[in-house]
Amino acid sequence: MKRIILNGTDFCAVTEDGRLVEYIPRSDEDRSGVILLCKIDRIMPGLNCAFADIGRKKNGFLPLNEASESFSGEKIRSGDTIPVQIRKEEHGDKGAYLTRDISIAGRLMILMPMNRYIGVSSRIENEETRKHLRETGKCIAKGEYGLIMRYAAADAEEEEIRKEAEDTFESWKQVLSKAKSGGNPGTILMQGDAAEQMKADYIPWGVEEIRITTEPDAEISKQLRQAGERTLALPSGGNIVIDRCEAMTVIDVNTASSPGLQNKEQTVTQTNLEACVMIAQQVRLRNLSGIILIDFIDMESETDRSLVLNKLEDCFREDRIKTVIHGWTRLGLMEMTRKRTRRERAE
């Protein structure tokens, strides 16, 4: 696969074999992953959460108890001013989802200053390598912070990992210093760089080229326009229709006359397989998240249904955002979920 990262003045993007799969405009409004200052507005014990002022019209939602058992933060009180990270951007009527369990991503590791967990990327499957990296992480962190060893750490020297971790922890200390000196809610304490994050995520998977550019070329611009369309054509004559609502995204696959195919079953299967490729591209490009239901064209053969499921899973293997294909529902729909990170692209 020929993967190219485009780093532009106002955007960063990724193409795979000429197909645009990610496009992130550089915008102050999209701050997912950024560390910022928040002021605790209201504590809601019954909901086990707090509402926090982050300098926006909508308050952020902050859980009182973080998901990780190894989180080391203290109890929060109304009026506290603390650093937080946006875990999920605001969506519809919901404000941004915040966390005190901050993570700072590097090329080789992810540092968690408010945690003590030592982990290894699930993409590293060799048990000996996993054990070695976990012991290395414990040795480097010394109980001061948590570490997750990324896929690229498998081929790195221990000193290289140590230096990156120590430098990152020093950056965190600077964040704490800025937080203590005060500021208005929403003040940015650490700004992530989307292009650098892309490089860190994709380089271990293989990148053919990193290209510095000023603006998208004609082909990229064409694919961007398609990402705003509701209906997209498939090579064999079918199409997919993408509809987003508050609770989920629904994708409908439709067939059309395909004279080159010999029978209806072949037409249906071929169209569904083509749809898998288009769906994976559009989900990544539009950054669709949450629950996604796909209404493929009905197939009578279990072999064909398995073929489509396997194709969809294969198409999402290159997605750097956590995506889970749950399989066929009893109503014959394909159900999948995708982690919400930055904002979805507007249609």
What does this structure look like?
27% of the residues lie in helices and 29% in strands. The two termini are 29 Å apart. The protein has 3 domains: 1-29 and 194-221, no CATH class; 34-191, Nucleic acid-binding proteins (OB fold (Dihydrolipoamide Acetyltransferase, E2P)), CATH 2.40.50; 227-338, Aminopeptidase (3-Layer(aba) Sandwich), CATH 3.40.630. The protein is an alpha+beta fold. It has helices spanning 127-141, 158-180, 194-202, 218-226, 264-286, 302-315, and strands at 3-7, 11-16, 19-25, 35-44, 49-53, 60-63, 81-88, 97-99, 104-105, 109-112, 118-120, 146-149, 188-190, 209-212, 231-233, 239-244, 248-254, 290-295, 323-328, 334-338. The protein is built from 6 helices and 20 strands.
